[in-house]
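Lecture 7, part B: from sequences to assemblies.

Below are the input chains for today's worked example.
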Amino acid sequence: MDAADPLAGKREAFWLPDGVIYLDGNSLGALPRRVMARMRRAVEEEWGNGLVRSWTDAGWYPAPQRAGAAIARLAGAKPEEVIVCDSTSVNLFKALVAALRLQPERKVVVSERGNFPTDLYVNEGVAELMDVELRCAEPGDIETAIRAAGSDLALVQLTHVNYRSGLVHDMARITRLAHQQGALAIWDLSHSTGTLPVELNACGVDFAVGCGYKYLNGGPGAPGFIYVATQHLPSFRQPIQGWHGHASPFAFDHDYTPHPGVDRMLVGTAPQLSLIALEEALAVFDDVDMTQLRAKGSALGECFIRLVDQELAGQGFSLASPREAALRGSQVSLTHPEGYAIMQALIARGVIGDFRAPDVLRFGFAGLYLRYVEVWDAVAVLKEVMSSRAWDRPAFKAWKAVT
Amino acid sequence: MDAADPLAGKREAFWLPDGVIYLDGNSLGALPRRVMARMRRAVEEEWGNGLVRSWTDAGWYPAPQRAGAAIARLAGAKPEEVIVCDSTSVNLFKALVAALRLQPERKVVVSERGNFPTDLYVNEGVAELMDVELRCAEPGDIETAIRAAGSDLALVQLTHVNYRSGLVHDMARITRLAHQQGALAIWDLSHSTGTLPVELNACGVDFAVGCGYKYLNGGPGAPGFIYVATQHLPSFRQPIQGWHGHASPFAFDHDYTPHPGVDRMLVGTAPQLSLIALEEALAVFDDVDMTQLRAKGSALGECFIRLVDQELAGQGFSLASPREAALRGSQVSLTHPEGYAIMQALIARGVIGDFRAPDVLRFGFAGLYLRYVEVWDAVAVLKEVMSSRAWDRPAFKAWKAVT
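Predicted structure of the full complex, as structure tokens:
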């Protein structure tokens, strides 16, 4: 399978340490090699020698727009609809308030239980601030909840791929359903951009946000991004009015005149070193066919599930992800009562996945840098951990928070 | 003066390019040498080799708290009152909403015309969102405006050192006056932390925000910081409820339980590469006596003003900063009708200050790395630029935005 993999050559674009099988690119993407040289230049030449001149001379200032355009290509959006800024959570806050302001008479937001926690927390906070009602549907009941809200529905906010199970929502269908109620749809693409083809324009999505440090490989805590559909660009109003969202940030006017485009989602000065790493990492995608990447991510997951079925039957694992590849993002989750300790034992052996309380072992399959043989090897290590009870040690059972 | 300078040795802690006199540390601080090695390690070892494990193994996760504690020492605050996160503008938004929620019956915010633009813009946005009235006093009338608002006054929001003139507000006096009306005070420390002794606790300040990339030398767009006085820690509520502000971010609860401390000002994942640069840069301050640093910053400014008076009389410059050192931060601003072109000519000669529309030339005096002789040399270059009319070239007169 590796010999036939059209993306096999991409692995060389990444630095991966010896002795590690990295199945956590859904949490923190691996380091693209080109970022190493770029960061040295950014720190030592651009900051060190260029100093403040680099805001113009090194092109720092328009980096949010450039990185936004690169992400737009991966997300089925126009370059002028996407900009990189702030964290995903801050961006979601801005998008939610902006969407509510577009239809102030509507007072219900629908999300789902099991949405990524920060999405729920931000929704809760916005609901209180804007005096609207947040309804969290049970995962299977989202369409019923949308229909039930009827003309009270202001917006639907969901994450495209569930962080825990990997379940992929039908973005086109749910967005259409929201629109049928006269409402808007806001999608969080944190677990999909950079690994699935995302079609924001084709699905008619109104607003979207996403993360730079997972499948986009932008580095730890890379800035997030935000998308505003063209039809909302003239009218949206976001609440955090910072100078970088001003029509002329360096005119130093006393009054806020919002930038006419998506740029008014900007607030303060971008964390430029983190942003430079993200922008450089995005260049890895320049020649990537997202359909090919999606196919490889699915196949890696298929391979993993098949091997777990075959090698680990009766060991107490359950599949917590959809078995059907089309419904599953680039991750496979297993549950096990000793999940935390098992994951620690795997990590100690160089097989890096992650754990989500209370019992989920997550394995991410980033097709840009993983080989099929690594899936085979990872399952072999897991089998050894189970047969030797290597996980059953106090050091592995002591809970330590892991992002 | 350089021979007698107790801080002279600190210059060695910074990388400064040959042929440059850097008088713009108030916009982007110079590169601390130790940051170069630290950033290589962060990118190549911690991200590249450590991958997701570095959130715990490399101590990434508690960096906002560590950097906050380092800033607290420079700002006269307790370590548990300050945390690093987001941009200054986003932090100001959170602080303003939190302060208004502490006294919802009060409906007036007082700021001043001439406050840094993003402060005004964020205030405007919050005033609309929270349905309060923003009153911008003329600079000299701030105390009158505070008294006039009386029991309607919710809060006063000012910047400690004015970005344009360098005027230092009397933080203790204005905060006391706000408190006398039963209101709160929020200070923006962007142009003071790291160059003046700031005494948040002694002045009784309620909330404060500030910038990591100016006198703190944290790198372009370094994250900002936020301070919440101990007495408000139990009760404040900020509107952007992200997972990193949760009491247990990695429990992945469905409901938001705010962290009991200043940590609930956190929102999303920190831009870790930018944060690491800032944290490393702060270590330069470990053995710095802020009173000595303030004295040097003042003396450099004195020296500059004296030389401008002496060497540039009749050339059309006016001093736009207070002449009295105690009222002036670590910058001196001059106005000149051809200010933009003159600054471009200076920069072309390696004397880097900046320009603020319409006519202000700003010169910053960062005492950690500047020598007195550089002030002398800078004025000599300015004199040459004026006597040769070197500024009078189309290339220097074409406006280009500069941060």
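Note for the exam: The first helix of chain A runs from residue 33 to 50. Keep this in mind when comparing with the next example.
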